[in-house]
Amino acid sequence: MSILNVQTKDTAPEASKPFLDQAEKAYGFIPNLTAVFANSPAMIEAYGVLSSHFEKTDLTPTERQIVLMTNNRLNGCTYCMAAHSTISQMQKVPADVVTALRDGTEIADPKLQALQVFTARINETRGYVDQADINAFLAAGYTEANILDVILGTGLKTLSNYTNHISGTPLDAPFQPNAWEPSDAQSAVNAQEAARASGEASANWA
């Protein structure tokens, strides 16, 4: 059950309705995440704008999905992993790449693997990557602009993943075939991170 309201075109704030229409035209239905975003006209618009800008980078559709799904996995977002697995299939991302992204295993293509590793480092270090990380990324054939592209995609997933964590967004039927759950190890890491964040928040209010 979703904690936040899953809006419809009848119940959503007026300013959110055009974005619900756009989503319906793009997918043939309104994804539940978009319907949750609709609670805040600012959020639903921001997510759409960031998504459109991310698509303007010179990263290929496969590379964009690597950035997005790596963040989804590391953030333990079951909704977005299922959704982007489906979107990746629609965009003809190679099946072995999708499997590697879902499992957190190595991608056979060295350049794509370098992108997955660098994206993971951005996520795990909160952007405090080492020069060696940057050098390896550039040596794989990426550019300084692509460093910022990865950060853009990471920011995009922060919006959706965190919303899903709070909302418990129900998975739409079209995404059900690609339902995903984090590994036991990843679940433990997520629990530790949540406990640490909770402790820090309590300390700040003490």
| Radius of gyration, whole Å | 17 Å
CATH superfamily: AhpD-like
Estimate the helix proportion, in percent.
Answer: 55-70%
Number of domains: 1
Major pleated sheet:
none
| CATH T-level topology | AhpD-like
Mean pLDDT: 91
CATH hierarchy, class: Mainly Alpha
CATH architectural name = Up-down Bundle
What structural category characterises the helix and strand content? mainly alpha
* Shape call: globular
* Strand residue percentage: under 5%
Unreliable spans are: 200-206
Write the element-wise H/E pattern from the N-terminal end onward: HHHHHHHHHH
In short:
The chain has 206 residues and is mainly α. 67% of the residues lie in helices and 0% in strands.
Describe the 3D structure.
By secondary structure, this protein is mainly α. The protein has a single domain (about 15-190), classed as AhpD-like, CATH 1.20.1290. Helices cover about 65% and strands about 0% of the residues. It contains ten helices and no strands. The chain has helices spanning about 15-25, 30-35, 40-55, 60-75, 80-90, 95-105, 110-125, 130-140, 145-165, 185-205. Helix 3 packs antiparallel against helix 9 (about 145-165), helix 4 runs antiparallel to helix 5 (about 80-90) and helix 4 runs parallel beside helix 7. The longest helix is centred in the C-terminal third of the chain and has 24 residues, at about 145-165.
